[in-house]
Amino acid sequence: MSFIDMSLSDIVKRQYEFKLRAFLGVFTSMVGIQLISILFSLSGVYSVGTGTSTGVSITVSYFSADMIIIFTIIWIFITSVLITTKAFRYDDFTFVANRLSSNMANILFLLTASLIGGASAVLSGFLLKVITFFFGDIVYGTGNSLMEAPAEFFMGMTAVILYMILFASLGYLAGIIVQLHSVFIFLLPAVAIGLGIFFGIRNEGEMGKRLFDFIFSEPSLVTFVIKILVLSAISFTAAVFLSNRMEVRN
């Protein structure tokens, strides 16, 4: 029996450090997914061209990290779901812990993964530009980069990291719900598709457009940050509350 009285913060810190070491494979998979998404982006997001009667033609191709960001968002969502499974939860029993400390350590890990994933996804755009410049037929290139527009660059990176946090919280909530009962494996996708159809046809898609604009088209950075943080906090809090209804380890 130990006479050391450990505080909640000490337990969370140890669990968090353990998860960073134990889940290194998660970040390895992130690198692989981002490399694959770079390959998909080599042909450009879209291109337009024009020609003249003299045989001169000009093609303008648009390259961006959009595909990389989308793939990374899918990665953080899946990671958030997987971290709620029994195989991952039982790792916490190597510590003197409770549900609260386990959830807090998981959330800290997901916030770290969101930060790394979001930053690396945006920075991968530089690698994409380098590859297309040296191995493509690019004659002239321009765009908003760190050196050309640092303010816009860091605002964009902040937005991507916040989206990672939002989808991490949604994935964590979805994973906890699925762990409550296996029926939700089929029920949650059905509900998501049903809501998508409902918002899509309601008032000729007006509700869906308002919801999309509310999350993805906020012009004010401060308001956008508040929205995403509040939505993420609600999702994480709901996940913590629901996890208390889960059975203990057999």
TrEMBL record:
Which keywords are on file for this protein?
A: Membrane, Transmembrane, Transmembrane helix
Q: Where along the sequence do coiled-coil regions lie?
A: none
* Domain of life from the UniProt record: Bacteria
TM ranges: 20-42, 62-84, 105-133, 153-173, 180-201, 221-242
Q: What is this protein called?
A: ABC transporter permease
